[in-house]
Amino acid sequence: MKRLLTLLAIAAVLASSLVACAPVPQVIEKEVVVTATPVPVVVEKELTVYHWWTAGGEKQAMDVIFKHFRAANPDIKIVDNPLAGGGGITLKTVMQGMLAAKMPPDTFQSLSGSELKMYVDGAYLDPVDDVWAANNLDTNYPAVINKMVTFNGKKYGIPMNAHRANWLFYNVPLFKELGLEPPTNVDELIAVAKAIKEARPEVSPIGLGSRDKWTAIFLFDVVLLSEGGPDVYEQFYTGQLDVETDPVIRAAMEKYKALIPYLYPYHGAKIWSDIPGPLGEGQIGMMVIGDFAAAQLVQAGYVEGTDWEAVGFPQEPEEVFLMIVDTFTRPVGIKHPEANTAWLNNLADPDTQAEFNIIKGSIAIHKDVPDSNYPDDLHQRASAAFKGKRIVPASAHGALAPQNFLSDWQDILTRFLYTGDVDAALSQTALVMTSYDVAGQSEWYWAK
Ligand code: GAL
Questions:
Q1: Which of 277, 352, 372, 377 has the fewest Cβ atoms nearer than 10 Å?
Q2: Residues 157 and 131: beta-carbon distance below 8 Å
Q3: What is the atom index within ligand 1 of the atom nearest the CA of 165?
């Protein structure tokens, strides 16, 4: 088609220049007529996918999805566009540009909840109720997932795995050597960190990679859950509290401050995926992160139970499943709608979910995938917690809190890790909560 247009353009230029220096040779006109004969256009069957699964373990997990997709759709070519950056921090920016320019890919990754809502509010997504109904997801997925993809009465994404954000990973030989038990609340976390620092000054008690600032939120979130429990957590992130005066939020910020002396000192130079390796080696004692870190540890050859272990954190006042839900979408105006439907159907398939989640570190959300699907202890415990504990949407990346607030919030927290100024952090937080109308933006979460 491009060649045809080029030929036509050349012919037109030639024709006009020849007109200028008449007489016009007949043959040129004939050529134009000949090349203008319609050429059949072959529309390739393909699917353009944008996602952020590039770290160790994540790429291998994505390959499992591709494998299942190709088996069911051998004639559709996958055009893969991975964009590094945990939680889609790079993808989000790229996608906003592509969507605004009306150049949508056939599908892209999002997190369910407030992040997904951002695309819905921009009128960038078409509903996926057909796929939802065809796979009977009202029955096969838990109600909280249903709520996190439903806006204006329609479904806007197909989630396929749940990560638990509130794991505390720790180095097993170090804990054995020092006779330590994994902490169950933030006070114990501080005490264990202190014990590590005193006994082994060369070890960083708590690992963190805050260059991608969202990890600072992960750490704050478990502190808040420990100080206030899940109700306060949900109220805070949906703008229901007076942040400047609320005693629990202040206490959480104070405890967060108490962790600062025990953090890996160069955290601002690292990202999340830089931390699991040193933790497996014993240069870092503990790390609060989602179970995607498990995939990376396993991929790097560190053995659960021998080199590292992870516990749900905090366990007091109540142990919850702090959930991140990876989701794929159907953008408006896509070139290959059939391929999109095939892609989304594949994600909802329990067989795809079962195999994918073993590698990804997350768990399947389809109820037909049993705990026993997973060969390792961490997955089995995550799967049991998903079924047995209260599920709370994680704030990180906007599953619960709105995007614009989170962007400022992660700046406030990363700055705080250097200043430790509680009053300033609280008043700045209160200000951005009001100016972004977090309460108004979060009404969807409380709607009955
Ligand atoms: C999830 C993703 C993980 C990690 C995480 C960051 O959506 O599956 O691989 O990027 O976000 O919170």
A1: 372
A2: no
A3: 12
Chain segment 202-224, per-residue pLDDT in tens: 999 999 999 999 999 999 999 99
C-alpha to C-alpha distance for 142 and 321, rounded to whole angstroms: 13
Q: Is 287 in the pocket of ligand 1 (CB under 6 A)?
A: no
pTM given for the model: 0.86
CA-to-CA distance for 107 and 158, rounded, in angstroms? 11
Distance CA 285, CA 173 (A): 10
55 close to 296: Cβ distance less than 8 angstroms: yes
Q: Give the CA angle between residues 359, 361, 363 to the nearest 5°.
A: 100
Hey, CA dihedral for 395, 398, 404, 408, is it positive or negative? positive
Q: Which CATH architecture has domain 167-319+397-446?
A: 3-Layer(aba) Sandwich (3.40)
Q: Looking at the domain that runs over 46-163+323-391, which CATH code has it been given?
A: 3.40.190.10
Verify cis geometry, omega within 30 degrees of 0, for the bond prior to 317: yes
What lies within 8 Å, CB to CB, of 250 at 6+ separation is 422, 426
**CA 403 from centroid of its chain's CA atoms:** 13
Question: Ligand 1 in contact with 213 (CB < 6 A)?
Answer: no
Domain boundaries, the chain: 46-163+323-391, 167-319+397-446
**Is there a contact between 309 and 142 (Cβ–Cβ < 8 Å)?**
no
Q: Which of ligand 1's atoms lies nearest the C-alpha of 325? A: 7
Q: Evaluate if residue 37 carries a pLDDT over 80.
A: no
Dmax over CA atoms of the chain, in Å, equals: 99
